[in-house]
Amino acid sequence: MPIFYPDNDNRKRRLIELATDTENFLYDATANYNDFKALCTQVNAQIVSVYQEAGLKQPDISQINVIKQADPSTDINTEETVVAIAEVIVDVAGFIGSVKYLAPAATKMLVRAGLMTEETAAKVLTKFTVPLIDREVEITAGDLAGSILGGIAGGVAVAGIDLGIDAIEGSIAKNKLRTGLHQIYPMRQTAKMSLDQTKELKNSIQSVKTTLDAITGAGIELNEQIITNLITKDVLPSVQKAQAITLDVVNVELSGLDTDRKSWTNEDTN
């Protein structure tokens, strides 16, 4: 690239770096989402068994659309977006507030299942991000960032996404790259927040399972209040940890990551 724009190479490397971080965070969040759903299925069955063993009425199971939690206006409702959770868990204070952070992973699952286009996924991820960072981010399918996000949602490795920049020189490349940086940067923030939140959600259900494993069939005399207290005791610590995961906390973690690898961060934000 011309010497008049020596930082274009830095901009391109940073864009790829931010996109790769986003890809990795979303990949791990999706794994957590799958584990969470599987654990919920097991725990729901165990809860029913424990209630039956205690001679109690079987608790209700809530069908929660995780994308609708993030965006109430959505009309997407499939097996990929819905998690079944016993109401005794859902009723724990603060639990439902973390469920919306499963939305990015659910979006990725929709694309993989052929139920959502990559372009739509990019828009959904943008819609999810804006309220969290409290500023407008507009991404369209034709944007550099739109292509990157769509590819990531579709399971394409960032290294395999054609940025379409190499054939463009000078100020045009500079503007495209800077715009891409400003659009992808907040996506990385919320992908990391989603990852951290899904980890705590998974931990909460795993804790419940550990307790249920111990009491199921143990002949312990139980009533509804005891069961509710046991489940709340398991779920609440993870919910409280999730509530402590703020954008400021995530930014500190990401700043540490960038510092450790000596990233070029001159133009990360507007």
In short:
The protein is mainly alpha-helical and 270 residues long. It has ten helices and two strands; from the N terminus they run H-E-H-E-H-H-H-H-H-H-H-H.
3D architecture notes:
The chain is mainly alpha-helical and 270 residues long. It has one domain (8-260). It has 10 helices and 2 strands, in the order αβαβαααααααα. It has helices at 8-53, 66-70, 87-90, 95-99, 103-112, 118-133, 144-153, 170-215, 224-243, 247-260, and strands spanning 61-65, 82-86. It has a two-stranded antiparallel ribbon with strand order 1-2. α1 (8-53) runs parallel beside α8, α5 runs antiparallel to α6 and α8 (170-215) packs antiparallel against α9. The two termini are 24 Å apart. The mean pLDDT is 87.
